[in-house]
Amino acid sequence: MWNDQSVVGGGFFNSTNQFGAANTPNQAQKTGRRTSRTAPIVIRQALHSGDGDVTIWGTEIMIVCIVARVRNIRMQSTKITYTIQDITGRMRAVFWLDQEAMEEDDKSTPKVQVNDYVQIYGNVKTNKGKKVLMAFKIMPVTDVNAITFHYLQCINNKLKMEANSKKEKVEVNPTSAMLPANSMVGMNDNSSVNGLNPRQMMVFNLIRASTLEQGISKQDMFVTLKDRMSQMEFENILEWMCGEGHIYSTIDEEHFRATDAF
């Protein structure tokens, strides 16, 4: 395996703007950003991302893929916290355990050890001012060539997004430009906050406000929301937010937590 320490501190991966982080020049305004479901990144990109999703040349990445080496593992009853490191930096990755699946078999727990290389899929979140990877899937890397291939994918992906960004022209709405900064014109029930509309935010805020380690139950949520939405709409919102990575189930399929609170 590569010696990680030997290459930190210089080169392509050490430049924040090379990957189009929050301060990248020429990137489109937030209202004109594109989105990508999944993209490979290096840890430095995650550490230098803004408050929202990781952004590469105006494209917001919903789910990231990182290949890194495990430097420490902390086991708890409901989650495993990994310290991971690649040639660009080090961060924590949190993997929540499925208690029901663990009772049936032990295949739900990632089979990795300290110093193993892993491929991780998840969301980058901010907790107490630090970036954390909320991991959905962790797989051991068995072929050293996969590490090189991942870095080449990161470079290729960045170059493609940079090329696409430069082709696009940011359109400015002249009517909107004349409105005062605090104007409420144009805001309605379909407006969104962090990608969620007001109906979805009602459900999300209930989940995020829970201080219980197992999260809030579906039944308790619906008791609060039953006068505002139907059960079908409520179920559809939960399913959509799970699929988009905003929330996840904990001890069973009836309890949920927000991915930015742990």
Structure description:
This protein is an alpha+beta fold and 262 residues long. Helix content is 27%, strand content 28%. The strands form two sheets. The protein has a five-stranded mixed beta barrel with strand order 3-4-5-7-6. It has a three-stranded antiparallel beta sheet with strand order 8-10-9. The longest helix has 23 residues, at 145-167. Mean pLDDT is 76; it is low at 1-33 and 169-192.
Strand order of the largest sheet: 3-4-5-7-6
Main sheet makeup: 5 strands, mixed, barrel
Mean pLDDT: 76
Helix count?
7
Rg of Cα set:
20 Å
Helix content: 25-40%
Shape: globular
Number of strands: 10
Beta-strand percent range: 25-35%
pLDDT below 50 for ≥5 consecutive residues: which ranges?
1-33, 169-192
Termini separation (Å)? 33 Å
Helix/strand/pairing category: alpha+beta
List SSEs in N-to-C order.
EHEEEEHEEHHHEHHEE
Protein traits:
5-stranded mixed β-barrel; globular; 3-stranded antiparallel sheet; 7 helices; 262 residues; Rfa2/RPA32; alpha+beta; DNA-binding
